[in-house]
Amino acid sequence: MAFARSWAAGAVVLALTAYTQATVVHRYLVGPGGVGSFGAALALVHLPNLLSVTLATWAAARVHPEPWRHDPVRHPVAACAVPVAALLLASALRPEFLAPAYGSLWMSTAVLLAGCAAGLLLDKLVWTS
């Protein structure tokens, strides 16, 4: 039950931030043509994704209950499962995403790792203070 509560919190935060990103950033800043350069993709796609993953990981980690918070395996699984599942789902829904030449897979994986690490670090910093 502890996992379910953490995953639900992470899923809600990830859904809200993804919806905000899709409605604000993609609609008004990116447009239907997509981004034209690596810098634009970094600023308008990957950095907002990093923020979404970080917030979702942090939310999931914050609601993970105390007896399991200090477990070195359970706590990261509780915190990072939703962003990992979201990346796997995006990869399954867009097969061209998996092509090695398609740089978005590598950037999305880097964003996932950095966001999960930042969310867990943020949880650790807030929890100990």
Describe the structure.
The chain has 129 residues and is an all-alpha fold. The chain has helices at residues 2-30, 38-63, 66-69, 74-93, 103-128. Helix 1 (2-30) crosses helix 4 and helix 2 packs across helix 4. The longest helix has 29 residues, at 2-30. The model has no long low-confidence stretch (mean pLDDT 84).
Structure summarized in a few sentences:
With 129 residues, the protein is an all-alpha fold. It has 5 helices and no strands. The two termini are 27 Å apart.
List keywords for this structure.
129 residues, mainly alpha, 5 helices, elongated
Treating each run of at least 4 consecutive H or I residues as one helix, how many helices? 5
Principal-axis shape: elongated
Class computed from helices, strands and strand pairing: mainly alpha
Low-confidence regions: none
Please render the helix and strand layout as text.
Blueprint: H1 2-30, H2 38-63, H3 66-69, H4 74-93, H5 103-128
Helix pairs in contact: 1-2, 1-4, 2-4, 2-5, 4-5
